Amino acid sequence: MSTENKALVRRWFEEVWNNGRASAIDEMLDGAAVVHGLGPRPQTLADFKVFYAAYRNAFPDVTIRIDDLVAEGDIVAARWSGTGTHRGDGLGFPATGRFVQFSGVTFDRIAGSKLAEGWNVFDQLGMLQQLGVASVPAAV
After folding, report:
1. Which end of the chain has fewer CB within 10 Å, C or N?
2. Residues linked to residue 97 through DSSP beta bridges, in sequence order
3. Are the C-beta atoms of residues 107 and 76 closer than 8 Å to each other?
4. pTM of the full predicted structure?
């Protein structure tokens, strides 16, 4: 089962993110799925689609590379890195035209050959700093 679960996660990143195939979301994400870590509260399938559209708008050339993939039981953990050029206003501010690099970790629970629950952590602050729209206080 681990091999099939890892293949599903690979396919998710390739088709949904790298190829921009929004229809693949319904193919791979269970209708009752819960997604954590992409906003202030857990997201439903509908919420995820809004998040996805905003990020694809902001980074139409986004590319995600899986750096490590580990599976145990019904959980798949992926450490990934991404790149993209900020060309749209989907993040709530005008496009900067800047190229960014970011990374993250995702844990997915698989049920019935679909993604049933996901936990996401990625360096949104670092991405926003690269875009020039966020900063942190200088070290003293």
Report:
1. C
2. none
3. yes
4. 0.93
Q: Which of 14, 27, 32, 84 is nearest to 55 (CA)?
A: 84
The domain locations on the chain are: 2-131
Q: Where are the alpha helices (DSSP H) in the chain?
A: 2-11, 23-28, 45-58, 124-131
Q: Share the mean pLDDT of the chain.
A: 95
Specify the CATH architecture of the domain 2-131. Roll (3.10)
Phi/psi of residue 27, each to 5°? -70, -35
Structure tokens at 6: 């890892």
Rg of the Cα trace of the chain?
15
Q: Indicate the pLDDT class of residue 140, thresholds 50, 70 and 90.
A: low
pLDDT tens per residue, range 89-106: 999 999 999 999 999 999
The HSE-up count of residue 12 (CA atoms within 13 Å, CB side) is 27
Nearest to 124 by CA among 2, 38, 23, 30: 38
